[in-house]
Amino acid sequence: MIKYANETFSDKKQLQFEILDIETKNLPKKYISEFDHIFSFQTLHWCRDIRKAFENIYQMLKPNATMLVYIIASHDLFEVLKFLEQDVRFAQYIPVNYNIHVKLLKRYARNKTYNDTNKHSHNPFKYTLNNNLQREKVSAVIDEFEEYLKSISGKCLDIGCGPGDIIKDMILPALDPNAVVIGTDVSKNMIDYANKKYSVPKKLEFDVLDIQTKNLPTKYTSEFDFIFSFHALHWCNDIKQAFENIYRMLQPNGTMLILFVASHNIFKAFEKSAHDARFAQYITDINKYIWPFQKSVNPRKELKELLETVGFTVNHCSHRETFHFDENPDRFFCNFL
């Protein structure tokens, strides 16, 4: 770095560059009480011995001199990395002084369990062990709309039901006892598992459905009093077609309640990595990670306008920032990769 800096940016009168470890226990004498001002931006948070770094800075300053520093106090990503470092399965991939980002990408790219965005379709049981995030968000929706959900009876449809555990355990008990629910998912493996594990005669059944289909089965047209979908529609490449199908499936004056993710910072990182020669080979299809409203400046406004264009009357539409933390690194990455 210093060699490059001197060759490219040095100015003999005003600017020069030298090698210095700010954490050194043997500060060169030429630096002691030498500077009127010391600054550092986006660097000192990498110090293992921050006290020694500041002691050295103090020694290098002249009396009454000043220091201006900018460092990162904390970041959620590093909390995740701490857990990974303590897990024997991942610790070997996070050695000291190594590019963590490269290691994680290689680790998950080699492991199909994490690399395949459709991995849960192949293992419904594993999905039920790793869907804490979905359960947490569905629980929040149920709490917020508890009184309204209790009044819902008739025929209901769930879009993106996965293996069916959330419908059976959380959604069905929240509805009127007379409600009948059909859970749908694009994955046949998920639906087969759901029918075997969670179906209830005359109360809950499951069927394969691609909500983006351009050939909606006639058996679904104007069939449902209520349609809901939680943590699923953001995976749609054609969100307009999905909403058009939902509109067609609802009976007159039917109701839709949906929750999906507008954007997430982790996908910005994926997108940048996909265009970086060092990481591109590990992200084979970036379109899988670009959600319908990922780049929207005002997702609430855009969604409301889209729904009204399709024909919906929008009674409630909100855009909220949420936070989710998971101590289990398997579950954390399963939610995104």
TrEMBL record:
Matching InterPro entries: Methyltransf_11, Methyltransf_12, SAM-dependent_MTases_sf
UniProt feature coiled coil, ranges: none
Domain Methyltransferase type: 1-66, 157-258
Top-level taxonomic group: Eukaryota
SUPFAM superfamilies registered for this protein in UniProt: S-adenosyl-L-methionine-dependent methyltransferases
Gene3D superfamilies according to UniProt: Vaccinia Virus protein VP39
GO molecular function: S-adenosylmethionine-dependent methyltransferase activity
PANTHER family associated with the record: TRANS-ACONITATE 2-METHYLTRANSFERASE, TRANS-ACONITATE 2-METHYLTRANSFERASE-RELATED
Protein's name in the database: Biotin synthesis protein BioC
Organism: Mycetomoellerius zeteki
